[in-house]
UniProtKB/TrEMBL annotation:
This is Lipoprotein. InterPro entries: TAT_signal. It comes from Streptomyces luomodiensis. Residues 77-87 have a biased composition (Low complexity). Residues 1-15 have a biased composition (Polar residues). PROSITE patterns: TAT (PS51318). It comes from the Bacteria. Residues 1-42, 58-100 are annotated as: Disordered.
Length: 357
């Protein structure tokens, strides 16, 4: 899944640009090439992702304009208010997960990740979207075991760039139109939509808050990719980024408030971890009401190598944190093979989320 960073656009990248709002030069540029395949991934997407301008403004306007108005902004007539003698309205059903219920523990989450027009970032970015979701459904059944299968679309909503961009954050935001298209597909297929964040030098919590208009839905969660979270002077692709247990907890608290405000079912908060150093101070991880923390082991290699990475990452893991496991259709099979569903389900603790790139 490696690709050129020369600045020459592929047809897929050109297609993706049509779905995104322009953001600076957006390209990887002639800078220092990333040291590994993982270093190539985020830089590749820069040509196909645009700045998401004004995300959340509609929600903010609604909040500031609270009052006796309908969806068109017109003032309600006093006659529209229920009278003292009117029958009590039927209670509105509580929001549920796409396939029923309000707790994630009944499901095995199985998904693809990606971004339209950026094939190097995963299968979700290629082919017909509905066909891809049907493939996820089939794959999910193979990993369900003792649970119901729950398909997942993990869309890159914030993508780390190899160049600073106008605001110096080394990141781009996927356009609202693209997010809406994927959310519509998730609703059609009763799937979960996870919005993946590769923050570059931007604030992680700030990127999550920018997605609030989607997070108020019961079928939308967050996935963090902290290996792309850069400190001052760091550039995506040149080194692994890092986060902390406290920062993840801060995101969980924000999501928990949304869950409470909108009476939502449990919301997943996934954090992908490729090495022990990527997430520091895990003792500070504090699960929050209505939010399920999932640590996803993210590493490339043979089945034996991936099991070794797994053991390192789940060692001394806080009991409240659930587990996930990432498989790579191409990289894992270079000189080896993809792990089978039976091998993945034999991992302990058994993964709650299995994701393919």
């Amino acid at each position: 899944m490696a690709h050129s960073t020369s600045g020459t656009s592929t047809p897929q990248e050109a297609s993706a640009r049509q779905e995104a709002v322009p953001h600076g030069d957006g390209g990887a540029g002639p800078g220092t090439p990333p040291p590994t395949r993982r270093g190539m991934l985020a830089v590749a997407a820069a040509a196909g992702v645009g700045l998401l301008a004004g995300c959340g403004e509609e929600t903010a306007r609604s909040a500031s304009g609270a009052g006796p108005h309908d969806s068109t902004g017109a003032e309600r007539s006093p006659s529209a208010e229920p009278s003292a003698h009117s029958p009590s309205p039927t209670p509105k059903p509580r929001p549920e997960l796409p396939r029923g219920g309000r707790e994630l523990s009944r499901y095995r989450l199985v998904g693809y990740c990606g971004l339209p027009g950026a094939a190097a970032l995963g299968r979700l970015g290629t082919g017909d979207l509905d066909d891809r979701v049907r493939q996820i459904e089939k794959t999910a059944r193979a990993y369900a075991a003792d649970r119901a299968p729950q398909p997942v679309l993990e869309l890159l909503a914030t993508v780390a760039n190899g160049t600073a961009g106008p605001d110096g954050t080394y990141r781009s935001r996927t356009s609202p139109d693209t997010i809406r298209r994927f959310h519509d597909a998730a609703k059609r297929h009763r799937a979960l939509l996870l919005l993946n964040i590769q923050p570059g030098r931007a604030s992680v919590l700030g990127e999550v808050k920018a997605l609030r208009e989607w997070l108020v839905h019961p079928d939308v969660g967050i996935a963090l990719d902290p290996e792309w979270e850069m400190g001052p002077g760091e550039v995506p692709g040149a080194t692994y980024g890092h986060t902390s247990g406290q920062e993840i907890t801060d995101v969980a608290r924000y999501l928990s408030r949304i869950v409470a405000e909108h009476d939502l079912p449990q919301k997943p908060l996934v954090f992908h971890q490729v090495a022990v150093s990527v997430v520091g101070d895990q003792s500070a991880l504090r699960p929050q009401p209505g939010v399920v923390l999932i640590k996803s082991a993210d590493g490339i290699g043979s089945p034996g190598m991936k099991r070794d990475t797994w053991r390192q990452l789940v060692k001394d893991q806080p009991e409240q944190v659930r587990t996930g496991f990432k498989l790579f259709y191409e990289e894992d099979t270079e000189g080896s093979r993809l792990m089978t569903p039976e091998e993945v389900l034999a991992l302990r603790p058994r993964p709650d989320y299995v994701m393919f790139e």
